[in-house]
Amino acid sequence: MADAVLIKNLKKSYGDTPAVKDISFTVKQGEIFGLLGPNGAGKTTTIRCLCTLAKPDDGKVEVGGISVIDSPKAARQRLGYVAQEVAIDKILTGKELLQLQAALYHLPKAAAKQRIEQLLEVLGLQDYANKQAGTYSGGIRKRFDLAAGLLHQPEVLVLDEPTVGLDIESRRIVWDFLRELRAAGTTVLITSHYLEEIDALADSLAIIDQGLVIAEGTPSQLKDKIGGDRVTLRIREFASSEEADKAQHLLSSLPFVEEIIINTAQNNSLNLIVQAGGNCLSKIEQSLTEAGLPIFSLAQSRPSLDDVYLAATGKTLLDAELAAASTRDLKKEKKQQMK
Q1: Among the listed residues 114, 183, 184, 120, the one whose alpha carbon sits nearest the alpha carbon of residue 146
Q2: Residue 101 near residue 148, CB atoms below 8 Å
Q3: Which of 49, 90, 227, 290 has the highest Cβ tally under 10 A?
């Protein structure tokens, strides 16, 4: 049986800027697969290539064994795609929007009517079906986007940042619906920069950074691979690099510390991998205090996906987001200066 999605050595650049350098992963049929990474990592470009909205420069992209590059029309019939931001006609009602989408899919009128009613019921949208789309909240609009992507009953549903900007209740509704789709046999591929979203939903995932896959597997496999408990430590808030080096040297001598990962974005922040199961905080605190290194914050936890990202890149996902935002602001400022 062919994989639901196969992407191998995908490359895509825009001018001289590489958006996807070399990405490979597979999605099994009937699973929720997550693409996790900061904004600008290459997630959206990857799925645009998958959904025939962008042509790859190189690589292999297949849906159910069908080449997206050689047979785009056949591939599209197996795909449902919900973009992060969808431009909708605010004058039309939700039902009219779905009827228009059904016509674009060339669905027979009787089948389209039945399918629309089914999706309105499943997604709890009956009360909004005859209201203008311009009156919808973000959560209701996202649910109508989901309905539009599912009208033709695709084998693979692709969602780009499906819950960005949604409140907690709307996010929960979307999560529950995606789990129901998986239970019914639909393969779901989602991109997200929300760690908790991928951790809660994904059967398997790939973590992308700067156009490359830096880790792939199930959430449990990736966490187990880096082992141990995690200790996040910050010495005093405005510590010098000498103090950080002194703390690192001291902590490396403690027998229960297995590895020290320096957070490259914060000189006064150290992330330790320690022997699992034991509470090491008191010993760490005592050692640093005796060395004259006051602690600003100290916490111990089980491994998370952010720890996986940190171990692979030397920065947390939040740090990567902030760096990407800073880069975007600089580029925007340069463009304005050139005008």
Answers
A1: 120
A2: yes
A3: 49
Please give the C-alpha separations between residue 157 and each of 25, 69, 113, 191, in angstroms, as whole numbers: 16, 19, 21, 11
CA–CA separation, 322 and 239 (whole Å):
21
Distance CA 145, CA 83 (A): 8
Which residues sit opposite 297 in a β-bridge?
Answer: 234
Give the whole-angstrom CA distance, residue 11 versus residue 22. 5
Location of structure tokens 């490396």: 252
Packed helices 109-122 and 94-104: angle between N→C axes, nearest 10 degrees = 130
Q: Kindly give the confidence (pLDDT) of every residue in the chain, 339 residues in length, as a single tens digit, with 9 standing for 90 and above.
A: 579 999 999 999 999 899 999 999 999 999 999 999 888 899 999 999 999 999 999 999 999 999 999 999 999 999 999 988 766 788 999 999 999 999 988 999 999 999 999 999 989 999 999 999 999 988 898 899 999 999 999 999 999 998 888 888 888 988 999 999 999 999 999 999 888 899 999 999 999 999 999 999 999 899 888 777 888 888 776 557 788 788 889 999 998 888 887 766 665 678 888 887 667 888 898 898 888 888 888 888 888 888 888 888 877 887 777 776 665 555 565 666 666
Walk across the sheet containing 17-27 and list its strands: 66-67, 58-63, 5-14, 17-27, 212-217, 204-209, 32-36, 187-192, 156-160, 79-82
> Which has the closest alpha carbon to 309: 201, 233, 234, 198?
198
What is the chain's length?
339
Q: How far is Cα 251 from Cα 246, in angstroms, rounded to an integer? A: 9
Strands 187-192 vs 212-217: parallel, antiparallel or unpaired:
unpaired
Tell me the two tokens of residue 51: 């959904």
CB 31 within 8 A of CB 41: no
d(CA 95, CA 123): 13
Residue partners of 268: CB distance under 8 A and separation at least 6: 234, 235, 236, 237, 238, 239, 243, 244, 296
Residue type for position 182: R
